[in-house]
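Work Package 3 (structural annotation) set out to generate three-dimensional models for the target panel prioritized at the project kickoff. During this period the team completed the workflow that converts sequence records into discrete structure tokens, so that structures can be stored uniformly alongside our sequence database. As a representative example, we reproduce one entry of 104 residues exactly as it appears in the project archive.
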Amino acid sequence: MSELTEYLLAIALCSPLFFFIVAVGFRLLDNSASLFLDNEILVDSSYVSGDLIREHIESTEDFKLKRSLKRALTFRKLHNFFMILAVISLPPVIIACFLVTFIA
């Protein structure tokens, strides 16, 4: 197996893990439950739904809270995007590993 193929295989194996780690980082940055509790808004769980965040963005007059909730919603969307990338990148990596194994 050539060196280029080995490097590409190593990168391919690490890509789903990389996407997952980035997604976890964005989930940790999403502190929407803390924002609600800091502003004396009671929530049921630590995972606040996106609809509830959007509802409070539209209804609140506090500019600082609105900006923080928009940032939390952006982090949530980025978290979902990178989780989708991690899931989508997993099957091609598995297929590539089998192909490299059977070809070599």
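The longest helix spans residues 63-103.
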